[in-house]
Amino acid sequence: MADELIEGLGDLRETFVKVSDEMKDRVALRMAAAAGSVLKKESRRIAQSEGLRKTGALINNIVIKREKNVPEGTAQYHLGVRHGRGLGNGKKIIKYLAVNKAGRIVVRRQNDPYYWRFVEFGHKIVPPASGKEGVIESYYTRTTKNGKVRTVLRQVQADGISIRRRSPTGFVDPIPFIEPALENKKDEAIAAMEAKLKKELDKLSK
Asked: Cα(15)–Cα(193) distance, rounded to whole angstroms?
């Protein structure tokens, strides 16, 4: 998404050069946040128009988040849906203990929109558990950090979800609300970046 926004900015690049080196990082972050806010608003609108408001958890948690692990000199915000641990531990977050299918006690959060990827990208329809017992051994390859390829033995439950995913009974079509936001509001996002840059330059000139 960020690469598409950068393409063809022309005058904006030339104007950005006027920012002093020590201020570039801060101004770039504010510009990226301004563009992200436009896309977040549009993404929420699309989700609303598609009827995705049930508990409101999905729409309310469409957010932008600053990406910290980026190349030097890059300012980037991520547009997505806050879920799981990303919801935090605030007073509004209701947590409870539950027992998962493996018999482990886990912490879950009420109204957690963990399912947002299933909506955005679609998902397989997995057949229900049949009650089959035992384990199945399979092998897969993994590339280590030093570039070596290792073959690893994996044991999975014969009736586990990973096995049942291999034989789906159908597919639920996606209802995208993140990607279309960029398609719809690319120009407005760039305009927001330009407006923020102008504002920052005006402040610096005083």
From this structure: 11
